[in-house]
Design goal:
This protein is α+β, with helices and mostly antiparallel strands. About 30% of the residues lie in helices and about 35% in strands.
Length: about 240
């Protein structure tokens, strides 16, 4: 079996949200002991699709990398964390992810190291995870740049869904996005866009102390994200 990743997004009622914050360390220890789990991060989220300052304390995300799909299946059946998503979340959405490409590191580790990438673009949907640790003295410039990128992002016809996520209110930022195709994602990222201008500036001025960029082929999504499954409009298949 080939290694896979998964992304899980859950919105809780207020009382459960407070318990989620309080239990992060306990759940991190439980995840560390999960058979077949190579890498795990529990993440807060921004409000709506916002990627700048501000948090949605009711909505939490989890990114996981597995030795194989059987380990993920066992986790979803037996893990107390997975049961919590189902039993206590007002809304929960999960997707399975086949790695296509990656570069960079996360907390000094390469989450997808040693995983053979799947064959390239098949014309189907693409999931993208970006993560950065921003140098403290670059925080103001980074957060001033976010609104222009968000405005450009919201105008993209190929964007299916996006959420800003992070390990801290500032400085440890990430995004998870779904695109109708790799071509749609590339049009946003590289073709004379506000995003491309910001990327050039991050390189020139050294904003990021660490960064990760990974692409995946999403499949097997379940549940809803803001009332619907963003991948329902695409033809899904197991790669």
């Amino acid at each position: 079996m080939a290694a896979v990743a998964s992304f899980h997004l859950t919105r809780y009622p207020w009382l459960q949200a407070l318990g989620t914050m309080a239990g992060l360390a306990t759940r991190a220890r439980a995840l560390a002991a999960t058979p077949g789990l190579r890498f795990a991060r529990q993440l807060g989220t921004g409000r709506g699709s916002q990627m700048g300052l501000g948090a949605d304390l009711r909505r939490w995300a989890t990114f996981l990398v597995w030795e194989d799909e059987a380990d993920l299946d066992a986790f979803l059946v037996a893990s107390p964390l997975a049961r919590r998503w189902a039993d206590h979340g007002e809304e929960t959405w999960s997707v399975r992810l086949v790695p296509l490409s990656e570069h960079g590191s996360w907390g000094g580790r390469r989450p997808l190291a040693g995983i053979e990438p799947a064959p390239g673009d098949d014309g189907g949907p693409v999931a993208v995870l970006t993560r950065a640790r921003i140098g403290m003295h670059h925080w103001p410039a980074f957060y001033r740049s976010v609104p222009a990128v968000e405005e450009h992002l919201r105008r993209q016809p190929g964007l299916l869904a996006v959420v800003g996520v992070g390990e801290a209110p500032v400085g440890l930022q990430a995004t998870f996005s779904l695109w109708r195709s790799a071509a749609d994602m590339d049009a946003f990222a590289y073709r004379g866009s506000a995003h491309e201008a910001v990327v050039r500036r991050t390189r020139a001025e050294g904003w990021f102390a660490e960064e990760l960029f990974a692409r995946f082929r999403p499949y097997g999504s379940t549940g809803t994200w803001d009332g619907s499954d963003p991948l329902a409009v695409t033809a899904q298949h197991h790669p």
